[in-house]
Amino acid sequence: WGKPGWFANVAAEHDAARNGVALFDQSSFSKLLVEGRDAETALQRICANDVGVAAGACVYTGLLNERGGYESDLTVTRLGADRFLLVTGSAQTTRDQDWIRKNLEPNEHVSVTDITASLAVLSVMGPKSRDLLSRLTSADLSSEAFAFGTSREIGLGQAVVRATRLTYVGELGWELYVPVEMAAGVYEDLVDAGEEFGLMHAGYYALESLRVEKGYRAWGHELSPDYTPFEAGLGFAVSLAKNTGFTGREALLEQKSKGVTKRLVQFVLEDPEAMLWGGELVLRNGEPVGDIKSAAFGHTLGAATGLGYVNNGAGVDRAFIEAGTYEIDIAGDVVAAEAYLRSPYDPKAERVKA
Fold this sequence. Notes:
This protein has 354 residues and is an alpha+beta fold. 21% of the residues lie in helices and 32% in strands. It has 8 helices and 17 strands. It has helices spanning 7-19, 39-46, 93-102, 129-134, 183-194, 204-214, 249-258, 318-323; strands spanning 22-25, 30-35, 58-64, 70-80, 83-88, 111-114, 119-125, 151-156, 159-164, 173-179, 200-202, 262-269, 281-284, 287-298, 303-311, 326-330, 333-340. The strands form 3 sheets. The protein has a 6-stranded mixed sheet with strand order 8-9-10-7-1-11, sandwiched between helices. A 6-stranded antiparallel beta barrel has the order 12-15-14-13-16-17. A 5-stranded antiparallel sheet has the order 3-4-5-2-6, covered by helices on one side. Helix 1 crosses helix 6.
């Protein structure tokens, strides 16, 4: 249960994403095409956030149940007046299709198509990602011309790809959606151009380390049908004011008025040698209040970090969190930890939006 043999390898990949440029293969993302005359109407009802945006805009949203709990979290990219690309987790293809179809009205003209196998996803992440990609495209990748949360087709080498400026690692970067028949060529172009910038291949252990350190949530860990956006600290991804309403809205309005009794918190251990793996007991002032849902070593922070819920029947707010002293029980060893409602790494997301 100590530091594994691959610890140094992940540290190098982590560092490349934070300080240089790293290449991730995220082709396992599930990709659903939702289209038809009533696509926007249906998605506005099914999604908690407002997806009635301009073509080329990306929206992070939850699909909620009537209790306000997460049935999924995903991104919705508007491709046109009646076409939307939904990108969700690797294991959620069937589940999310089923949820969307079950929540369509009988008279709505909407189709849902799994296009996962038709698109590879190569993610170029890190402060040098813009410099690398600019070697392969004439498209303007500046923040003024290509803001965070936007998506468009660009020429890249010999291919046309959909470049989406999003990140699951907390750095400047683009997800490249590449037709599978062009994927090998685009990959080779990225590797060749990346040599100048010290491009490093990075894997899913590094991805997990980077996303936990940044405090990004994951379905099946921090998000489930039992947790709401307000409990998960994702109230920004809910549009209570949109005219259409959405599934779970009434439950969220009630919760907002009463306050939450559990809240997701990021913990950073004070002992740099201790490791977290998930499932560890969280203690507040010596009393059990929850457990760790996701954990990894935060190589930039220099210590293990984890995401876990703090529970209190009388309510949990910022004052309650900040007034406590926290420890994590790691196989019987109680280790002191600092608690954060916002990641201590780039809390204002300035690097993401650079």
